[in-house]
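Give me the 3D structure for Pancreatic lipase-related protein 2.
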Amino acid sequence: LSGLDPAQPYFQGTSIEVRLDKTDAEFVDVIHTDSAPTIPYLGFGITPAIGHLDFYPNGGKQMPGCGKNPVSQIVDLDGIWEGTRDFVACNHLRSYKYYSDSIIYPDGFLGYPCASYEGFGTVNCFPCPKEGCPNMGHYADKFKGKINKNFVKLYLNTGEAKDFPLWRYKVTVTLSGKRKVKGYVNVALYGSGGNTKQHQIVTGTLKPDNAYTNFIDVEVNVGTVTKVKFLWNNNRINPTFPKLGAATITVQSGLN
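Predicted structure for Pancreatic lipase-related protein 2 (256 residues):
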């Protein structure tokens, strides 16, 4: 059974006979996309973990792309109803959109086991453990035989619009240069599976010989990395033309 943002109002906190629960099937996986409290945030989805695998994309409360005005996204009259409906219940409806995308991307939507969404942004919840990470959505049941805990909470990030899956990498850049400057560092990954856009690793004061680490969620499964593009910019004209390079760049895939 796959629960697509199962309902919170009238169901959360009730006995398992009333609501979706892991005892309802051999395998129950749940996607939580609108689990903010009903009052005052109007969350439609249930918050606690209730299945064998519980996925909380983007933390499970506010989905990227859902804060936008529906009128700005409407291109024809037929879209007015869908645009208005999506605006009112956008977070709630993301669950079935993620699920339908998961059918097309069997390697996408990796869920990382973690105690919280805050922890998901740290090295404590990266990379996948030795038994691997389950895929949120249609292929979650491939993980059925590997569950040994009572409840497993899984976190991941998604894109703002279709196509939704993102792939997580940890990137560490060690800088080289003569002196510190202010600015930002971006990298793009090139690989056997495709190339990514530029993703920011650090912004602020950049010091030579320092290592800067960040997690990036990229829009393509890069596969075997063949090249990394490094770009830095200080957003201002500097008559001394400071130079900054990358002594090393380390890329770690969350999958393996």
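The helical segments are 38-41, 78-88, 90-104, 117-120. Let me know if you want a second pass.
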